[in-house]
Automatic annotation (TrEMBL):
InterPro entries on file: BP-dependent_transpt_permease, MetI-like, MetI-like_sf, OppC_N
Location in the cell: Cell membrane
Transmembrane segments: 52-72, 121-147, 159-176, 182-200, 231-253, 289-310
Key words, A-Z: Cell membrane, Membrane, Transmembrane, Transmembrane helix, Transport
Membrane-topology descriptor: Multi-pass membrane protein
Organism, scientific name: Streptomyces monticola
CDD domains: TM_PBP2 (cd06261)
Protein name: ABC transporter permease
Classification of source organism: Bacteria, Bacillati, Actinomycetota, Actinomycetes, Kitasatosporales
ABC transmembrane type-1 domain span: 117-307
Length: 319
């Protein structure tokens, strides 16, 4: 009798395993095995979000355009033909130079938009890397050591935070006779690190009281190992979100400075410079303004969408 009951139980278990769909087995596999990390869970959620896929595809396209502009146009962005001054777009024309029309000097708007992507993306990415490294390191030191170091670094952060961003950048850039891409990047990074520092400081203060940090200290781990092995990986998530969203803000800041004549020089290709040159022709030739402004808006929107998607994936409360 016990053998019959045992055989029946084995048969029912086998039937349940046979009826389990392959997708169910795949979904339940991580539960039985090694649990996924926060990064793996975030990537798994991001791949399922249309918002992330669309924004990532657009950003990848912009990066390719900035790195290899000649793949998208063979027209010269600086060569002008006065016979084509303010000529309107001809979308059905075979030549790429005619797609967006021509500006006041007879230069191809399409070629200038394509080649102007490099400086705008370079400034945005460069400033984001600089402020993330400097502000993140400063905020991590202030949050971990506390005491007088926290007070000193926090007061320095408050001083820079109180300076108007664009106004301060204009004052800094006005001190340079030649404003190259690297000078603009340095000026924006000089004033833009404060938000990253505050976010990192708060995340480190929350993380340093965790059990695994206390255990690492009890086991004799040095400060460098605790900071970069235990605290940084668990406090970097909000910094990544802020940095991703801020990248679009820095692109807008560079374009604004170029529009005001305080950014890149007039001979450098920039969306802000083209918008400034076309602002006087908005009534008669709106295409000279709409295309660079549209490219700028799409780029900034893509980075904001990417930042929102990353924020939702890294924040367990928003899942």
């Amino acid at each position: 009798m016990p053998d019959a009951i045992k055989t029946t139980a084995q048969d029912e278990t086998a039937q349940r395993q046979d009826s389990l769909a392959p997708s169910d087995v795949q979904d339940t596999a991580p539960v039985a095995g090694k649990p996924r990390s926060l990064g793996a869970d975030a990537w798994r959620d991001l791949r399922r979000k249309p918002q992330f896929v669309v924004s990532a595809a657009l950003i990848l396209l912009f990066l390719v355009i900035s790195a290899f502009p000649t793949l998208f146009t063979s027209a010269s962005p600086s060569l002008g033909e006065l016979a084509k001054t303010l000529q309107k777009p001809e979308l059905g024309h075979i030549g790429q130079a005619d797609w967006f029309g021509y500006d006041l000097q007879g230069r191809s708007v399409y070629a200038r938009v394509i080649h102007g992507t490099r400086n705008s993306i370079l400034v945005g990415v460069g400033v984001t890397l600089l402020v993330t490294l400097f502000g993140g390191l400063l905020g991590m030191l202030a949050g971990y050591f506390g005491g007088i170091w926290d007070s000193l670094l926090s007061r320095i952060t408050d001083v820079f935070f109180g300076i108007p961003f664009l106004l301060g950048a204009m004052v800094v850039l006005n001190a340079f006779a030649e404003r190259s891409v690297w000078v603009v990047m340095g000026a924006l990074a000089f004033l833009g690190w404060t938000q990253i520092a505050r976010v990192m400081r708060g995340a480190v203060i929350t993380t340093k009281h965790s059990d695994y940090v206390v255990a690492a200290k009890a086991l004799g781990a040095d400060t460098k190992r605790i900071l970069f092995r235990h605290i940084l990986p668990n406090a970097i998530a909000p910094v990544i979100v802020v940095a991703t969203i801020s990248l679009g803000v820095y692109i807008v800041a560079e374009s604004t400075l170029s529009y005001l004549g305080m950014g890149l020089p007039s001979d450098s290709l920039s969306w802000g410079g083209d918008i400034s040159d076309a602002s006087n022709q908005i009534r008669n030739s709106p295409h000279t303004l709409l295309f660079p402004a549209g490219m700028l808006s799409i780029t900034v929107l893509a980075f904001i969408m990417l930042g929102d998607a990353v924020r939702e994936a890294l924040d367990p409360k928003l899942r």
